[in-house]
Design a protein that fits this description.
This protein is mainly alpha-helical. It contains eight helices and three strands, in the order E-E-H-H-H-H-H-H-H-H-E. It has one domain (2-219). Helix 1 (11-34) packs antiparallel against helix 4 and helix 6 (122-151) runs antiparallel to helix 7. The longest helix is centred in the last third of the chain and has 33 residues, at 185-217.
């Protein structure tokens, strides 16, 4: 936390919202490898293990839950603050108004997925599936809304366009995964885990980028008025 004369800098919180999930899944992967629960590989292109599997057993189980639950809360706060940031910069429209609500549901979905991870049974499996789908899809929608709002801004238009390009890459990978599943389910099953890792990376890199924009724009929280 950085206290400035005109308030408390918030970019560190946005950075944590993007980095904590990434650091968590990579930490649990390495811990699971060391403890023998998953084999060593490069999950981004070898598609050798799912993100979920890295946090199901041993010490990684506790690491995953102990860090991903706070990450869900960080995500909720991140989108709440993004709405305030866009209003502060004069971005208008209904898009920014949706950010806190979609972010709330996405955060709750991530929390539900995290709590259900490591437990067997159809009910827990359903919670995990619904949780991960809602988290990824609603977070992506929020990123589209934020990027579009920035593209319409008088000084942030170019940056907003670049963020939209990142969203387009994310969308294309998601569409390709769906098409592959429809055309060749066996091949999709082989690469499904890699798609998940890449999508998680891109979504959290978007958050990190936005955090840097908070920093460059001087986004702060004021504990006083005047």
């Amino acid at each position: 936390m950085v206290l400035k004369r005109n308030g408390i800098e918030l970019w560190w919180l946005g950075l944590a919202a993007g980095l904590v999930p990434l650091l968590t899944i990579h930490t649990t992967f390495f811990v699971s490898v060391l403890e023998g629960h998953v084999a060593w590989c490069m999950p981004y292109w070898e598609s050798c293990t799912s993100i979920s599997k890295t946090g199901r057993h041993g010490s990684a189980y506790f690491i995953f839950k102990g860090t991903m639950l706070p990450a869900a809360l960080l995500g909720i706060l991140f989108w709440l603050l993004n709405a305030a940031w866009l209003r502060q910069m004069g971005c208008q429209g209904r898009g920014p108004a949706w950010l806190p609500w979609l972010g709330l549901v996405a955060g709750l979905a991530l929390g539900a997925y995290t709590l259900a991870l490591g437990h067997g049974g159809d009910a827990f499996n359903l919670i995990r599936r619904i949780g991960v789908v809602l988290y990824f899809s609603l977070t992506f929608i929020n990123q589209l809304l934020l990027s579009a709002a920035l593209r319409a801004h008088v000084t942030m238009g170019d940056t907003g366009q670049r963020l939209l390009w990142l969203c387009q890459v994310t969308l294309l990978i998601g569409i390709f995964s769906v098409l592959l599943d429809g055309v060749t389910p066996d091949l999709h099953e082989r690469w499904e885990d890699a798609f998940e890792w890449v999508l998680a990376l891109l979504i959290n890199l978007h958050a990190v980028w936005v955090a840097m924009l908070w920093r460059s724009s001087g986004f702060v929280a004021r504990l006083w008025t005047g």
